[in-house]
Design goal:
alpha/beta; 219 residues; 7 strands; globular; Rossmann fold
């Protein structure tokens, strides 16, 4: 996957919205559309680290790591801190201002303004290849069932045979019907210090030789 040259980044200080740690920008975007952003604050570092570890453990193959609903990149930074190369990242975010922030903070990553449901078309358009894992901070509980189903199916469809989607939720249970979608869902982490506390889930397709997992993994 081609890397964006560092020179593509906007110089620090050109836009005040690109300064600081991004919390102010995140809160501003949340105030504009709370349902779309989903959380009033970015993920805390403990949650980001759990998400990063779970994502690297779930990685299948050497394809890019695709992040959905990247926000200001808290989880992105945690992925880089545990050894992922910035050029291996494809960041899909639908908010234009947050995309500008991400382009500035992660100039070697592929930052794409787009909808998660179009993940296959987006990856094909950019010739990004097959993801090794998909990391999601999408506010699934703020979506309709049809929207959730479309995103989960589209995501699992672009992953390799043993690939996984790593998703966090503030609720005790995931907002998706895993069995109905032909997926197995396992809780793989819990961030008690996040505000609010959050659970981390690994979502995978049920393989033909393990049909019993379709119901065993339903949250």
């Amino acid at each position: 996957m081609a890397e964006n040259p560092p020179s593509a980044a906007k110089p620090l200080g050109v836009d005040a919205r690109l300064r600081g740690n991004g919390v102010g920008l995140f809160v501003k975007r949340w105030a504009t559309n709370p349902r779309r952003i989903g959380a009033i604050l970015p993920s805390a570092k403990p949650l980001a680290r759990i998400m990063a570890r779970a994502s690297m453990e779930a990685r299948s193959g050497r394809g890019p790591v695709v992040e959905l609903g990247t926000g200001t990149g808290t989880i992105t930074r945690a992925l880089l801190e545990i050894g992922l190369e910035e050029g291996e990242l494809v960041l899909i975010e639908r908010d234009r201002e947050l995309c500008r922030w991400l382009e500035h903070r992660f100039p070697r990553a592929e930052v794409i303004e787009g909808e998660a449901a179009r993940i296959r078309a987006i990856l094909d358009e950019r010739a990004a290849g097959t993801p090794s894992v998909v990391v999601s901070s999408l506010p699934l509980r703020n979506m309709t069932e049809a929207e959730r189903d479309t995103i989960i199916r589209a995501t699992l469809d672009v992953l390799p045979h043993a690939g996984a989607l790593v998703q966090f939720t503030y609720a005790r249970r995931l907002a998706i019907a895993c069995a109905r979608l032909g997926a197995v869902c396992r809780r793989v982490g819990f961030a008690a210090l996040n505000v609010p506390p959050a659970s981390v889930w690994r979502i995978e397709r049920v393989l033909a030789d393990e049909p019993e997992l379709a119901t065993a993994g339903r949250p």
